[in-house]
Amino acid sequence: MKYQGKKVLVLGLARSGAAVARLLRKNGAQVTVNDQKDRDSFGQVPEELEQLGIQVVCGGHPEGIVSPDLDLLVKNPGIPYKAAPIRQAQSYRIPIVTEVEIAYQFAKAPIIGITGSNGKTTTTTLTGEILKTAGLRPVVAGNIGTALSEIIEDVQADQWLVAELSSFQLMGTQTFRPRIAALLNLYQAHLDYHGTMEEYIEAKRRLFANQTALDTAVLNADQAAVMELAGRMQARIFPFSASRRLEEGVYVNDETICIRTDGQDVQVCTLQEIPLKGAHNLENVLAAAAVGFAAGAVPEAIREAIVRFKGVEHRTEFVAEVNGVTYYNDSKATNPEAAIRAVTSFSNPVVLIAGGLDRGIDFLELLPVLQQHVKAIVALGQSADKLLAVAEKAGVSQRLKVDSIEEAVRQAAFLAAAGDSVLLSPACASWDMFSSFEERGRIFKKAVHTM
After folding, report:
1. Phi, psi at residue 317, to the nearest 5°?
2. What global pTM score does this model have?
3. Would you list the domain boundaries of the chain?
4. Exposure string (b/e) for 221-257, b if CB count within 10 Å is 16 or more?
5. Domain 7-97 classification at class level
6. Segment (H or E) for 10
7. E strand segments, 99-213
8. In this predicted model, which residue has the larger pLDDT, 280 or 344?
């Protein structure tokens, strides 16, 4: 076997780290897992791994954990390449990958990879629903919640593996080759990790690097930055557009989604039949339709899945209506562009709850959105003062700073009138106050239901 007797260090004992450690150990590798967090942070996982013969080292990165005789280092996607253990491995010329690369090497099923700055989870979930409706037996995994390494050996050759993939994951791939790859959009994001926009885009491009003319690339034809990458791709390009007719691909014509291939148009559904709100979700629907069609789903199955799809938790998710005010959870909006897309999907006045981890951005792109759509803002987290300053420039007269989601909900309810919407759309990552955007969203929903 390829990994029999190989010495592998897995850096980061998160879910994907544990999954890839198990996979490598099962296939004969000598595996050590290392994490700077204390052992108690991981419950029973360290003991379970040790029972499999995996060495677990927690509480820091001790001297010698990265040694010249390592055959491979598998790193948690979130660990930056400037971290000391990664730099040491680079100095020893040890190959460094993420678990996506390892999982791919064991894949029997064809893979659909979906990435982009925004919309990945909605598009990935809807793609899974389309393929399920078409009888194609998909398995949905990746950045969406289940590590590829956790399920890769169970997915059969006659199924599809639909994977949401982040730039962090893709940056650590070498041979990874999806049969269908989709790039939804490109916006400024994660520059604290990647350093430059060029490096961020290059990480996204890794999704297509090993595709051939037998594969398909689904691209957003409405974004020049995305289409500029097409010239460097070997795959067949099957684009989508919300704004113009395409010679081939999925587009909107006369308020109807159409698939055009081999010179023929097939109507899928009208825009009025789509339950999801907002122009950004229309793009997600178009992308999922394009991916589904490329994977073999018939238009009837695509339509059926689209019209019954109500969205994904934490993505402009309806929570409740209280005293004529509607509450929406968009905790997944971890950058300004995502928040802009959410806010502009509302035609009624919005009381915006925003703020979180300060990544050094100025939020000035929010100015016109705040001016046109937001009647009041409640800010929290490290970036609260920056957001309130931009809101003041935008002429938003009602501006409050709070210390918790619960207080934010109470204050937003006071500021909102019947007919308004209270929207949690932070425009920031959650890690200054919460373990994840999911935790932030769940706390918001609980606060709404209990106020």
Report:
1. -85, 125
2. 0.80
3. 7-97, 101-308, 317-450
4. bbbeebeebeeebebbebbbbbeeebeebbbbeeeeb
5. alpha beta
6. strand 7-11
7. 111-115, 138-142, 160-164, 180-183
8. 344
Phi, psi of 73 (to 5 degrees): -120, 125
pLDDT at position 291 is 98
User: Each residue of 81-103: pLDDT tens digit?
Assistant: 999 999 999 999 999 999 999 99
CA distance 116 to 183: 5
Helix, strand or coil, per DSSP, at residue 249: strand
Query: Which are the contacts of 186, defined by CB distance < 8 A and separation ≥ 6?
Result: 116, 117, 200, 201, 204, 223, 225, 226
Residue of 397, 386, 449 whose CA lies nearest to 422? 449
- Two tokens, residue 334: 């971890």
Question: CA-to-CA distance for 260 and 400, rounded, in angstroms?
Answer: 49
What is 317-450's CATH number, 3.40.50.360, 3.90.190.20, 2.60.40.10, 3.40.190.10? Answer: 3.90.190.20
Three-state helix/strand/coil letters over 297-361? CCHHHHHHHHHHCCCCCCCCEEEEEECCEEEEECCCCCCHHHHHHHHCCCCCCEEEEECCCCCCC
Element holding 375 (H helix, E strand): strand 374-379
CA distance 182 to 308: 23
Is 61's pLDDT higher than 80?
Answer: yes
Residue 178 to residues 168, 235, 345: CA-CA distances in angstroms? Answer: 17, 10, 32
Beta strands in 125-170 (DSSP E): 138-142, 160-164
Question: CB within 8 A of 442, min separation 6: which ones?
Answer: none
Radius of gyration of the chain (CA): 23
In eight-state DSSP terms, residue 220 is: B
> Domain 101-308 falls in which CATH fold?
UDP-N-acetylmuramoyl-L-alanine:D-glutamate ligase (3.40.1190)
Position of tokens 């070498």? Answer: 174
Residue 150 to residue 263: CA distance in whole angstroms: 42
